[in-house]
Write a structure and sequence with these properties.
Blueprint: H1 3-24, E1 28-37, H2 40-45, E2 54-62, E3 66-70, E4 90-93, E5 98-103, E6 120-126, E7 132-139, H3 143-156
């Protein structure tokens, strides 16, 4: 492995942690890449302006809270159409969602045919109107450890 690459990556990670800690006034303990999947009404409620019913970001685990962070970026389509596919920076304070609950999807007989099941976490919460909302977080890694982590944060708040 090229040591220049890994030290550069480590510097970028440290810089991200420093900037994020300044935003939320809390120490970052870890990250997990995750796709936030929800229907368009939920995305609109949360101000996640996206042209798809999902958006990639980071679960950011801090000392007392967990956040979902979407970095600003341009999509491939924005090269061809001005403004299309532009993602603004977004920060969701997941720990403060009302009546938040996390669950692992039920494994059924043919679950092995869908490898995403082992990387998914179901999240439900109530919006400001009291309606229950459901979101699926599809992780970059297996969901078991992240599921335990997320539930610890709900116990703290």
């Amino acid at each position: 492995m090229d040591m220049t690459y890994s030290s550069e990556t480590e510097r970028e990670r440290e810089q991200f942690f420093k900037e994020f800690e300044a935003k939320v006034n809390e120490k970052v303990n870890g990250l997990e890449l995750a796709e936030f999947r929800a229907d368009s009404s939920i995305c609109k409620e949360l101000n996640l302006n996206t042209y798809r019913p999902s958006i990639w970001g980071l679960l950011v685990f801090c000392e007392k809270n967990v956040y979902y962070y979407v970095a600003p970026q341009e999509s491939y389509m924005s090269f061809f159409t001005k403004g299309a596919g532009r993602t603004e920076e977004k920060l969701l304070h997941i720990s403060q969602f009302s009546d938040i609950k996390f669950a692992l999807p039920q494994k059924r007989l043919f679950s092995f045919l869908n490898p995403e099941i082992s990387r998914s976490i179901l999240m439900s919460y109530k919006n400001l109107s009291g309606l229950e909302r459901n979101v699926t977080l599809v992780l970059n890694s297996k969901a078991d450890d992240i599921f335990v982590k997320l539930n610890k944060y709900t116990e703290l708040n």
